[in-house]
Amino acid sequence: MTPSNPPCDVYTLGAVLHELCVGRPPRGAGALTPARGPSPPRLPDALVAVIERTLRHRPDERFASAADLAEALDDVAADLRWRTGPPRVARYLDELFAARPTAPLAARRAGASRAAPGSACSARPARSGGARRAERRGRRAAAPRFTAAGRARDSRAMATDPDLDPDDVPSPIDLRDPDTARAWLADAELRRPFRPAVRARIAEEVKARGATRVLELGGGPGLLAEAVVAATGAAYTLVDFSPPMLAMARQRAPTARGVLRDLRDPGWVEGLGRFDAAVTMQAVHELRHKRRAPRLYAQVHGLLEPGAVFVVCDHTPSDARPLYMTAEEQHAALGAAGFVDVTTVMTVDSLYVITAARPAGAATGRAAGQPSLAPTP
Ligand SMILES: C[S@@+](CC[C@H](N)C(=O)[O-])C[C@H]1O[C@@H](n2cnc3c(N)ncnc32)[C@H](O)[C@@H]1O
After folding, report:
1. Can you list the pairs that 46-53 forms with residues at least 24 positions away whose Cβ atoms lie under 8 Å?
2. From atom 14 of ligand 1, which residue's Cα is the shortest distance away?
3. Does 3.90.1150.10 match the CATH number of domain 183-357?
């Protein structure tokens, strides 16, 4: 078996990406310009930069891993406000390859002697070089391209969430779509093989405090619920805005209570009850702008008993953008919401785990966003 070779794999992925975007394989390292023929389709500069980096001649200049490449592509999609996912990708590939000649080579070779419809037996009339060039031009025109018009069509298909503010970063995928939710789960565990270790650490932090009522924000398919319930036996409430994610969570953690809520909705806390631990993993950035985190944390603070722990896990940003928060920004937001003993307890790859406590002995009351006694749907 060939040992794994990430730079080589990244190059191969880049070559596939090049062909999918440009319609032909790369010619020479980093070449997005064909050696002959028409100029390449107009691709967004950010996407060109990613593809070129995958195809660099020197392996150490390429992305270090397929996960880094995937992250860079996610960033491009988010920056361009593209919304994508398996169903849209499948549609795009259908279009791309439907426009290519797909007949088997032998059949195409035989085409010259195939009977024309309606004639008893006639060879196809020989075409002039001009006619062949015109046919090739026609085929090229039919192929989908990243032209301005193509992008307009794509951006209609990739409509952004109407609940977003103009400075929010739209998600490139719709986690409320069942196929996308399933694909996200498969991809997340492959892309970040250390996620189980992170979940184990979060469960350990909850167990160490003897928590018996645990709240999870953006719990998705229930992997963290499963780990925390197994470690603690706690009563578990998992909030998420995606019905297919909640359905997966029900299967994985059947004792957990799944609650369909949007964390950007100011009233998401209504009727949830009180908790002695809250946890969240790779979900705070789903608020689509880090300025929303302090209000979320104030709401969580209002749901927690004095002395309760809040465990936050999310991504370190790769650059200064409004989506992801650094660990330092998390510390500041948690402190501003009234949490104390804010500590980064784990960092693995791009994920950090931070613990914070609601001060012991603090008066409970209707603080920011604390629930009324309305029943939970
Ligand atoms: C990246 S996934 C992480 C899932 C889970 N925490 C894990 O690590 O396995 C983010 C989750 O947050 C949920 N989510 C995104 N935006 C949300 C919102 N505004 N309100 C509630 N849940 C949201 C998604 O449906 C998804 O399940």
Report:
1. 46/75, 46/76, 46/79, 46/80, 47/21, 47/73, 47/76, 47/80, 50/17, 50/76, 51/14, 51/17, 51/18, 51/21, 53/14
2. 218
3. no
